[in-house]
TrEMBL record:
Keyword DNA-binding listed: yes
Protein name: AraC family transcriptional regulator
Listed GO MF terms: DNA-binding transcription factor activity; sequence-specific DNA binding
Record key words, sorted: DNA-binding, Transcription, Transcription regulation
InterPro entries: Homeodomain-like_sf, HTH_AraC, HTH_AraC-typ_CS, PchR_regulatory_protein
């Protein structure tokens, strides 16, 4: 049963345990409702079958069908007057599940849904037969429906695939952060060119260069090279890799090229740097 508690609300719910750390709950509710607070390390993704008014402490009241709740923020929702009841889908996503599925960085960007052009809708993804089932069936009787469970997995796949694409972002700052999060945390693969990145972000090359330098205080390739050399320094300092190993991991065709770039930034060769940290 649902964990929403409000004596003025009639509700019924059922939960699908999709995977460890990933649950979906269907809830039938009416009246103004105070949503439950997520447990630590969990974020709730909410979608309503109809427009609801969302009351948040730091925002004006918004009429919408999709919203998130996380942390200790109190959120109340209220169906528009023309809807006596609405059906809510609540997806509970744990941080551990996001890490295991390499989605933590992508998911972190949607804390403010207003920065996104659009995200997939679960109810709109259903065929007419399944949509009628969800709209007309007591939620407590849905938990054994395999078609509905399959539809939930398909929806989640499409939802997170969209998050991986920067084109859904409408905030330039988030687009630049997306580049850093997706290409400057791992260095084994060559980074795309500025032309390729600009196309991915749907902006001109000149705008990309300007925004990046404004955000990080240096040109794109200089920042990228500095990040690579700092990572190399950490590997050398820990003794995890020798100079040849670091060079190979960074994708250099020959250690000499790596040694030259490293010395340019740190003033010493990688070998001397490693010995100095012993």
């Amino acid at each position: 049963m649902s964990t929403i508690h409000n004596l003025n609300v009639n509700f019924k719910g059922t939960t699908f345990n999709l995977e460890q750390g990933l649950d979906a709950e269907f809830i039938l509710m009416s009246g103004k409702t105070l949503l439950p607070l997520p447990e630590p390390g969990v974020t709730y993704l909410w979608e309503s079958s109809e427009l609801v008014r969302v009351h948040r402490s730091q925002q004006t009241i918004q009429a919408k069908t999709q919203f998130l709740s996380f942390g200790d923020e109190r959120i109340e929702i209220e169906p528009l007057k023309k809807y006596k009841t609405v059906r809510l889908l609540r997806l509970s996503v744990s941080t551990e599940w996001l890490i295991e599925n390499n989605l933590r960085d992508s998911f972190a960007q949607i804390k403010n849904l207003y920065d996104f052009v659009s995200l997939p809708s679960f109810y709109e993804s259903l065929d007419s037969q399944l949509l009628a089932l969800v709209r007309n069936t007591d939620p407590s009787r849905l938990n054994n429906n395999l078609r509905l469970k399959s539809a939930l997995f398909n929806y989640l796949n499409s939802y997170f695939e969209v998050l991986k694409s920067p084109k859904v972002l409408k905030n330039d700052r988030l687009k630049i952060e997306w580049v850093v999060n997706n290409y400057m945390l791992q260095f084994e693969q060559p980074i795309p060119t500025i032309t390729e990145l600009s196309n991915q972000l749907s902006m001109s090359e000149s705008k990309f260069k300007y925004l990046f330098k404004e955000a990080f205080g240096m040109p794109f390739y200089q920042y990228y090279q500095q990040k690579r050399m700092n990572e190399a320094a950490e590997w050398l300092k820990s003794g995890e890799l020798n100079v040849t190993g670091v060079s190979q991991k960074l994708g250099y065709s020959h250690p000499i090229k790596f040694i030259g770039q490293f010395k340019k930034l740190f003033g010493v060769t990688p070998l001397r740097y490693a010995k100095g940290k012993e």
